[in-house]
């Protein structure tokens, strides 16, 4: 591990920590299952069941941007600085779209509590994907851009910027940037699963039906088995979306930086605003 000549040693060391800690903290509000009665106690499979859980995820995840910007500035390298500037502009561009696509989800489910959003999707046709199909595609595209994965990896473009904002990093500090990216991939898979794909629920198979199958084990035994099934289902969906992100990375070439900006501001932003308008009209018409 080394610090380049002329770099700010403290900030150079602190930047990867700023990048990786928010990625880990987002999991504090991600539920892996519903509520289960085990030996007289109600168990929630979430570390902190916040009323503003969804807002917490985006607020904390956006803090990682500071780590990337500080890394580029503190490295005393033109390549690193250009990469960090690209990172900042790209994340600002796609944060707007992500926030607006989430508005549609909030209008449908009426809650920012991730456990409530997941519980509301027990019926297959109540999955967020069927209620917000355009919102899902925009959210997923914006998520990949936020995480700087191919085809949105302009901040790290090897052919243009050597390695972008972490050009002057090595050793564990270099590894922490990659760890943050891969943790964010898991977070994206978890949030997409909860918002759009039924969370821990199995299509056409309600929790009550599952409990009735195992009622011979007693209340706690049946709840324990159903809890394990729900956790397995949830992580199966998450693993699928991690695989899908990797498939996109292996399939598509890198977009030019100007194409990334145009997609964010001229395509996804107007579509996300239109999605909110249409969602509002449909909700008013139905009610």
Please name the defining characteristics of this protein.
two-stranded antiparallel sheet; mainly alpha; 2 strands
Structural write-up:
68% of the residues lie in helices and 3% in strands. With 287 residues, the protein is an all-alpha fold. It has one domain. The protein has a two-stranded antiparallel ribbon. Keywords: Membrane, Transmembrane, Transmembrane helix. It is a multi-pass membrane protein.
Helix/strand layout:
Elements: H1 9-25, E1 35-38, E2 41-44, H2 53-61, H3 64-74, H4 78-109, H5 114-119, H6 128-131, H7 133-146, H8 158-161, H9 171-196, H10 207-213, H11 218-251, H12 257-286
Antiparallel strand pairs: 1-2
Helix pairs in contact: 1-3, 1-9, 3-4, 4-7, 4-12, 7-9, 7-12, 9-11, 10-11
Percent helix among the residues?
A: 55-70%
Q: How many extended strands?
A: 2
Task: List the strand order in the largest sheet.
Answer: 1-2
- Strand coverage percent: under 5%
Shape: globular
Average predicted confidence as pLDDT: 87
Summarize the structure.
With 287 residues, the chain is mainly alpha-helical.
